[in-house]
Fold this sequence. Notes:
Shape: globular
Low-confidence stretches: 1-7
CATH architecture: Roll
Number of strands: 12
CATH superfamily: Electron Transport, Fmn-binding Protein, Chain A
Radius of gyration: 17 Å
Structural class: alpha+beta
Amino acid sequence: xADAATAVKxxxxxxxxxxxxxxxxxxxxxxxxxxxxxGDEVRGMTASAFMSGSLTPPLxxxxxxxxxxxxxxxxxxxxxxxxxxxxxxxAYSRHFxxxxxxxxxxxxxxxxxxxxxxxxxxxxVASVEDMHRCGDHSLFVGRVRHLQSxxxxxxxxxxxxxxxxxxxxx
Length: 170
């Protein structure tokens, strides 16, 4: 049955990438910071490509671009952290999305020997169980080894903007 949907072909043109991002932007998501540590090197990146993978055993999945510096740090360390941001933590998301404004001492607190975002709504640390190449990204499957959470409202992302519960879609 034909409808008004646009067919996506295996092309890499700017117009197709723009349309793809535009369509995916209609999926409201929480905002996370993925962190990794290898030796003294700590990296973090804002990401919405995060999901639960399994309850038993507890697994999560993240998608990281293969050209991202964080990708190599996760591969070297064999572990990663996920910090789920609260509504008041938009500055953290922007910081790790390439608009740094926060001082280093404001950024992290250590849990299970691993850096997570200070004051995050929830956090977990996972050991890499598996990695799958997926186009220009890799999917890292992690076994959860630490969990924490606090009460609060989540920071959301929808249609290219930060949102909170009750915000109009604009």
